[in-house]
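Ticket #4471: structure export looks truncated?
Reporter: QA, pipeline team
Priority: medium

Steps to reproduce: submit the single chain below to the structure queue and open the exported record.
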Amino acid sequence: MLWPLAWAALCIVAVCVGVAARMSYSDSSSDARSFTNLAYAVAPYSIDDLERLGTGLDSPSIDELGREADLVVLGSIGDAREYVHKSLLTDFHIKRVIKGSPSEDGSSIKVFEPIGIYKGPDGKVLVPGDAYVFGGVPMRPEIEYVLFLERVADSVGIDGYILSGSPYSKVPVSDNVAYRVNEPGEYGLPLGEYADCDIVVADERSLENYECAQQAILDFVGE
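Actual output as written to the record:
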């Protein structure tokens, strides 16, 4: 089957993206809205693949995720979003701080969402890294999220945070997760096709596993 090969290739690229996102500081654009027509090379969140890869992400430790994060917050995105350092730099308005600083509820922070632009055989393509490798999509307006964050290095030159390297470092605060089931043949759809979902999954079993982790996180933060 071609899908396992595509998945393996994506994992290799995603590792490179994660490194590049921390090392490349020259690319930027103030108009991230123009990205909706670019192909988004995201592999779906698949419980079968997570189990096969032996990452432990099929049965996440929420306590460990919380301990490793510098900041855990609940809130929603603002209007500003730009492309910088191989990431979407997004304004995030904090409704409640669960762990760490800033201590003031109602403040705003900058969050790097790990999606970079790379040259593909048919032109530019958006490639997710780190937290978004397994079915991750950009945060949506007017939706509240719980974020597990790590502060970026001072060398980046921007006072901000990056999502912890887990598919559960960003989860929606909702009783019904907005999702899309991606078949192998749908790999590389335009980013705009995912505008109404919070996770891309391979099948219903994978969705159930993600929803269990999401609920554990909401319980963890008291939602």
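Status: closed, not a bug. The export was complete when the record was re-opened. Leaving a note from the reviewer for reference: The first helix runs from residue 2 to 23.
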